Amino acid sequence: MAAEFVAGHPSTELRRGGTYLEVEHEAGADVWTRVADDGDWATRLHWTRGTGPRKRYAVARVEWDTTGAAAGRYRLRFHGDTEDGPFTGVSEAFDVPA
Hints:
Layout: E1 2-8, E2 21-28, E3 31-37, E4 43-49, E5 57-64, E6 72-82, E7 85-90, E8 94-96
Antiparallel strand pairs: 1-5, 2-3, 2-6, 4-5, 6-7, 6-8
């Protein structure tokens, strides 16, 4: 599973002691629990630098290998920074089949 977010370059904020991405599992009605982050072997984070007028931005691609994941509803969350400050983006929810 993958999602892309427009974000500032990672050198804008290194997030030492924090995280860039989270994989969340729906634990109940609108209740989400983190099951993985950027320290997990099943996650990947790739940046591509913007071009032209969007040169100061990048595209952050969050990937999660669902192999071995429990069946259920999940979403990907990305924490980024721009010149305007920090932000959080969330993907649409998706299902991992049994």
